[in-house]
Amino acid sequence: MDHLNRRTFLQAMGLTALAAPLARANDAPASWRAGVASLDITPQRSLWMAGFALRKQPSQGTALPLHAKALALQAGRGPVAVLVTVDLLGLTAGITDRVAAAVRRRHGIARSALLFNASHTHCGPVVDEQLSVAYDLSAEQWDALREYTAQLERHLIAVIGDAVSRLAPASLASAQGRAYFAANRRVAFSPDGPVDHAVPILKVDGDAGAPLAIVFGYACHNTTLQDGFVQYHGDYAGVAQAALQRRHPGATALFVMGCGADANPKPRGTIALVEAHGTALADAVDAALPGASPIAPALHTAYGTVELPFVDAAARERWHARLDIDPIYLRRHAALMAGIVRRDGRLPSFQRDPLQVWRFGGRDLTLVALGGEVVVDYAVRLAREHPGQRIWTAGYSNDVFGYVPSRRVLDEGGYEGGDAMIYYGRPGPFTDVVEDRIIAGVNRLMAG
Fold first, then answer.
1. Which of 447, 318, 430, 329 has its CA nearest to residue 373?
2. Which strand (E) or helix (H) includes residue 240?
3. Distance separating alpha carbons of residues 209 and 212, to the nearest angstrom
4. 8 A C-beta contact, residue 214 and residue 251
5. Cβ neighbours of 33 (radius 10 Å)
């Protein structure tokens, strides 16, 4: 009996000793996990390039490859979220909806946890039928673009899956730099219009402390290269990403386009200038990285939509009559509208606008992603309404359906104020409620 008691006692002591580290492991604080992947999406054939109605020929080779990149993040045992960036003019709701549905089936990732952003380079291929009014293309050329779009969707699903498969321990930190080549382009209305020179940064280090991913943004059109340039190229954002990856071996750089709908690079027009602007942006990131602040392992994601109403029929007719553009675009637009009416019996009365909020570490960093080509006033207003928080506002996210003017820009008019909607194939400009609807929608998501 004494022998049995002694053996039982020793076994109990051993189990207690083993249980202690297990209990500590279970009680360990939550930590980040991250995985990153990149995929070349440069077309292997000559396709029409997006962004400039004045282009006269399809692409003639590649000057800088285009990429789709994915950063998967997980805080503790929470759900996985994935940021996807592309070196393209923009993605459409059709593309992102189809990709999101496939990703949910394969990986169980909720729509709120999947964020798409396009750099808005004007030296990538047309995707879907975005800006179809702007281009004079044959049926064969449109077929080639649809084939590329289908391939692009497969690439996006693949790069997301690859990033998720690479999840491993990581740490996150945020920083902010400054770059100064952006200039407000609405000089006819506001000679000294607002510009956002901020360079927001999210740094992801691997378990060994080396950079795994560097996410950075800027609010400026990727239009250093003009309509006469007919090679695939990521513009200044592509140059900056390539530079950061050379400087930080093993790291993947992801560019997130900000609210740069009313800003252009200055000066612009040459390869030398695109290299200079891209290098300046990479320099701004590197200068800010040493001061990055750690982000606690917590991530909350939210997604919603708001309806942005178009003007009524009378206002639409007045808008259409005063447009000072080549009549060919008016005829194409009229044919597109006639096709919509034949299918549905009426023109759309509103545009559905996707809104998304990712809140990192409680209040450490809040990423707000807005659909469309968003003017700088939205970033300014959100920062003003949320003092004390680091707000990173991105445009060109989830669906680039047209320009999104503020009340000020809408009242001023011009290209960003409504005229560009002709090229996007929309019935007309928005009404003056759009800014307040978007801000209210974002605030609801932030409060959730």
1. 430
2. helix 235-247
3. 9
4. yes
5. 20
- The one-digit pLDDT tens for each residue of the chain (448 residues) are 334 344 433 344 443 333 333 333 344 457 999 999 999 999 999 999 999 999 999 999 999 999 999 999 999 999 999 999 999 999 999 999 999 999 999 999 999 999 999 999 999 999 999 999 999 999 999 999 999 999 999 999 999 999 999 999 999 999 999 999 999 999 999 888 999 999 999 999 998 889 999 999 999 999 999 999 999 999 999 999 999 999 999 999 999 999 999 999 999 999 999 999 999 999 999 999 999 999 999 999 999 999 999 999 999 999 999 999 999 999 999 999 999 987 778 899 999 999 999 999 988 999 999 999 999 999 999 999 999 899 999 999 999 999 999 999 999 999 999 999 999 999 999 999 999 999 999 999 999 8
Distance of alpha carbon 252 from alpha carbon 93, whole angstroms: 26
Residue position matching structure tokens 């019996």: 345
Whole-number Cα distances in Å, 170 to 4, 251, 290, 301, 422: 48, 13, 17, 19, 46
Give the global pTM. 0.93
* DSSP character at residue 266: S
Say how far apart CA 279 and CA 282 lie, in whole Å. Answer: 5
Partnered with residue 55 across adjacent β-strands are: none
Assess contact for 99 and 153: CB atoms under 8 A. yes
